Fold this sequence. Notes:
The complex is a heterotrimer. By secondary structure, chain A is mostly helical. Chain A has helices at about 15-50, 80-100, 110-135, 145-175, 185-210.
Amino acid sequence: MSSPVLSPTTGEPVSVVGRRNRIGLIFLIVVDFSGTMALIVSYCYLWSLNVNNGWAPNTPSLNSNNDVKGRSPLPWADDWPFWAILGLTVLATVILWLGIRSLRSGNRGGLVAASFVALLVTLVTIAMQWWQMATFPFGVENGAYASAVFLLTGSNMFNLLISAFILFGIVNRSREGLIATDNPWQARLAGYWMVWICAAILLGALCTTFLKESSNPTPENFGNFSLFNPDKPTPTPSPSPSASPSASPSPSAS
Amino acid sequence: MADTMTPTPGSGEQPEEPTNRPPALHRLRDWLQRRYVRHVLIITVVIGFILLPLCWLIVAAMNQTGAPASVVMEDIEQTVFVFTLVSIPITAFVFAVLVYSLFGWKGKSGDTPPNEDNPAIRNNLVAVITWSVVTSALAAFLVVWGLMELASITNNSFGTQPANGQVKQEDVLVVNVTGQQWVWTFEYPQYDKYQSDVLYLAKDRPVLFNVTSKDVVHNFWAVELGVKIDANPGAVTQTGVTPNKEGIFNVRCAELCGLHHAYMETQIRVMEPDTFNSWMRENGGGKTS
Amino acid sequence: MSTATATIYSVDVPQPKQHGKPGGIMRRLNFFTGLAGGVILAAVFGFLMNIQFASGAQTADFASASAGPTFWAIMVGWVLGFMGGMGAFVGPIRWVMGRDLTHADAEFMAGKDQGKFRYWRFTTDHKVVGIQYLIMAMVILGFGGLLAMLIRTELGVTWAEVFNPDFYNSLVGTHGIAMIIAMIIVVSGPVGNFIIPLMCGARDMAFPRLNALSIWLLVCAVPPLILSLLVGGIRDGWSVYQPLNSQAGPGMIGYQTTIIVFAVSTAIASVNIMTTILTMRAKGMTWSRTPISIYGVFAAAAMGLYAFPFYQYSQILSMTDRLINTSFFDPVEGGSVWLYENLFWLLGHPEVYVILIPSTAIILELIPVFMRKPLFSYYMAIAGIVGVVGLSGLVWAHHMYMTGWAPQANYPFMLSTEMISIPVGFLVLVIIGTMWRGTFWSRLPMMAVFAVVFNKMIGGVTGIYLSDVPADQYFHGSMFVTAHFHYMLMGVALFGAMGGVAYYFPKWTGRYLDERMGSIGFWLAFIGFQITFGSMFVAGLQGQPRRVLQFDNLFNISNWISTIGAYTIGIAMLIFLGAIISSWRHGEMAPSNPWQAQTLDWQTATPVPLDNFPVLPVVKGLPYDYGVPDPLAPEKVEARLREEYEKAGTP
C-alpha cells in the first residue's frame, strides 16, 4: 500500500485537505442557495401581490396597438433563451464530469480537453445570457416583473462568470499537472459547483416560464381606497415617491 | 444509611436495583430539609412578593393618558398583567439562586481557585424534568392565552373583513386613514367623504379603519384604544375597535417615516353618539350610507 | 518557553517551485497599500462616473440626481482597491495560474518572523486574525457608543432640538448598524478565531487564507458606513425600511456597500468556523466530549450562513431600486414594502441569536472553571443551543405582526416565538445548575455571570410580552421594544462578552486584565445600564414611540433618567477600555493557564506558538471534570469498591 500523498503546504494527507474543502464548498453552496432563494422569493412574492397593478411591464413596446397586450409579460415563444441557457450549462457540467471520469484511466489529457470545452460552452452561455438581457422588450425600470426577470438573469450571469473563472482554473491546473488522477478533488469541487449553478438556473427558468400573469388581478390602487378595475383603462402610474426632487436619480440622467 | 452499593462477592454482575429507596415524597421532604434549599425557596417567595406590584405598576404606566378606552385595550392590559404574574415565579427563583450564590454559598477571591471540593453535580434528572415541564407549561399557557386573546381581539377589530366589501354590522363607522409625510388624514366615506385631521369617534360605536399611505411606511397607533397597524403604500390594511370611553386620546406614528416622524401625532376625540352625529352634520355631509 | 516566532512543524514533502521570496507579492502588500489602493481607485472611479453624470455633482447638493451613481462608483472603487491592495486577489490568481503555496509561503503568510507588523498584513494565522477582530470590535463599539451618547443627549434635552431631525435619524440608524456589526463579531471574532482552533486542538483554521479575507473584508466595510454619515446619512433606522430608504441621500449607498461586503465577510467566516469545527477537532474529541462554546460558536456560524444572504439581497435590491430604477420596493410600479420587510427580517431575527448564542456559550464555558464544578447537564445546554438554532429560522415575522402583510400568519409565528423561550430557558437552567451548591472563585469573569443572568431574565420576560400579538399591538414601535432588545443584545451579549474578554485576556495578551479597574468599569456600566433601560421601559409603557427626538412632556422624566444612566455607561465603558489598554501594555503577567481550566486552549503556552501545539493532543473526556468526585456518585463508588475487592481478592 503506498503512503498517502501529502500536501506540500501543510503536510497533511491530500484526502484530508480534499474532504475539508468539499465541506467548505458545500457550505458556500448553502450560502448561494439562500441567496438564490431570496431571488426566487422576491419574484414569487411580487408576482402574487401585483401591487398597484404594477407587476407586468408598463411599456407598450411589446405591441403598440393594444394597450392591454402591452402590459403582458413575455409570451411563451420568447421563453426559449431561459431554457437554452439552462441546457448549455447542463452540457458544460456533463462535459466536465466526463472529463473527471476520464481521469480513472490515469490520463490527464481527457480532463484538460473536457474542461476546456466546458469553458467554451460556458463562455457561449454567458454571451447568450448577455444577448437575452440586452434584447428584452422591457427595460429594468418597467415594473416589478421586469425588475425580477432582470434580477434572475443577472444572477445567472454572475454565477456563470464565476463558473467560467473556475473552469479556466481547472483547465490551466490540469494542463500543468496539478490535478492528481487518483484524487482530483479540486476538479470534483468544480463539478459540484457547476451542478449547483444548473439548479439555480433551473429555479429561475421555472419562475419566469410558469409565473407570468399575476395571481392577483384586483389589487388596491396606490394612495386611495379603491380597487383596481380591470375594465377601466390602464391608469398612468402616479409619480413615484422616489422621483421627488429631494431624492434619488431619475432614469433620464442617462 | 444502608449500603446498597456493595457488589455480592463472586458474582461480578451489576448490583441490583436498590430495594430500600425511600418513596418520592420522602425524598422530596428530605431535600426540603436541606438548609440551602429552604433558604433559596424563602428568598424566592420574598423576591416574588417584591416583584408582585410590578403587575399593577406596569399597567398603571400604560394608563397615564386615559387608557384603557376600548375593550381591546382592556384585553391587552389584562394580558400584560397575567403575563407578568405568571413570569414572576421563575424569575424570582432564578434571582434567588443568584442571591444565595452571592450570600449563601459565597465566593472567594484569590490568585488560585479557592477550593476544589464543590459537589460534582453533572446532571439531576429531577431538576431537568421539573424545569422543562414548568417552562413548557408556562410557554403553553402563554401560547394558548395569546392565541385566544388574538382571536378575540381580531374579532373585535374586523380583522377578517374583505377590503372593500360590505361591512358586516349596520352601525359600523368606517374611517379611511391616510398617512403621509407627516400628517394623518381621516376620511369618513359614510358622511359624504368628510375629511379631517382629527379623529372623531362615537362612544360605543364600532369603528373600522382602512389604513394606507401615500408615500412611505407609517404606523397608525391609536394609543389608548390599543389599535396599531402599519400604513403601507400600495396596500390597504384594516383594523378596528369600539371605543368605550369618552375623552381626548392620542394617535402617534409608530414607524420611522422621515424628518418629522416625531411630530406626526394627532388627537382622537371620542364623544357621545348624538354629539358625534351633530358634528358630522355640521361639518361634513349628512349620513349617506 | 517557546518564542512567538517558533517554526511551524516541519514538512518533509516535495515542494513546488518557489517563485521569488516566500510570500511573493504578499511581502509588499499590507493595510497601507490597501488603504492607498482603496482611496486611489475610489477617486478614479468616482471621477470617471462623474464625467458620465456631470450635472450637479460639483455642488454640495448631495440630493442631486448624479450624486448617487458617483458615490456608488466611489464605493466600488474603494472595495476593489482596498481588497486588491491588501492582496486578496493574489490567492485566486495564484490558484488559476497553478502556483500553489509552498510551505515557506504558508509560513510567511502566517506571519512568521514578522513581529508586530504581521497585524497590518493579510496574515492567515488565526491568532492574529482573532486579535484583529478584537480590535475592530472595540473600534466599532466605540464609534457606536459615541453615537449613543449623542442620541441620549438629544433625548435628554427635552426642551430643544439639539440636532436637526435628519441628522438625529442618521445617528440612530448608524448607531444601530454599528452596534449590530460590533456585537456580531465581538465574540465570534476573537473567540471564534483565536480560541476555537486551540480548543479543538488544531494548528489553524480550515481555510487560513479565507480567514484573513474575512477580517479584511470587515475592515473594508467600515469606512463606507462612517463616510455615509457625511453624505446624508442613513436616516431610516438600522433596518432602513423601504420606501423611506429611497428618499435618503447617497449616504444610503454607503450603508448598502457596508452590508453587502459585511455579508460576504460573515459568510466566509461562517464557512471557515463550521468547517474547522466539523473536520479539525482533536483525535478523541467526539461530539459528546466537545466543549460547549464550540457548539455555541458553530451554532452562530450556522445561523449566519443561511440567513445573511437575505439581508444582503435586500440591500442589493435597494441599491438597484435607487440607481437603475428597478421596482422591487416601489409600490407605484409593482414593488412591495412587505418584500423588503420579509427579506430583512429573515436575517434580522437569526441575527440576534448570532449575537446572543456565542456570548452565552462563553459564559457556559467559563462557569465550570470558576465554580470548580462540572457543567450542569451538558446535554441540556446542547439541546438549548440546537433548539434555538432550529427555531430561529421560523420566527422572523414576529417583527412584522403589525404590518398587515398576512394577519393569519400572526398565529403560527406567535406559537414559534413563544416556543423559542423554552430552549433559552434550558441555557438558564444549565447556568444556575452549575452555580448550585458551589463556592465560586470571585474573579471578574465569574462576576459577569451574575450580571448576564439578571439581564437575561428581564430581557427574556419582556420578550414574552412582545411575542404576544395583542400585547405587541401596544408595544410595537415604542421604546419598550428598544429597551427589550438592549437588555438582550447589550445586557446579555455585551456584558457576557466583557466577561469573556476578562476570561481570555491572559491567553490573548499574556497578562491579567486589571481586576480592580475592570470591575469598576463593569459594575458601573451595569448600574448605568439598569438605569438607562429600566427607565426606557417606563417610557415605552407610557407610549413613547421609537426613533423620535421630541415627544410629549409626559415622557420627559423617563428620558432624563435614561440619559443620566447613559452617561454613566459611557464613563464606565471608558474605564473598562482603560483597563484593557493599560493591562495590555503593562498589566500583571499571567501564567499560561491562570484559571487552571481543562479545555485544550488553556493547555497551550502563552504566547501561543505559531503552530499552537508541539504535538497534536488527544482527548479522552469532557473537559469539565472539576471538583472532587462526588463520593455518592454510584459509578465512582462501584469502581472504588470493585477495585478494593479485586485487591483484597488477589491471592
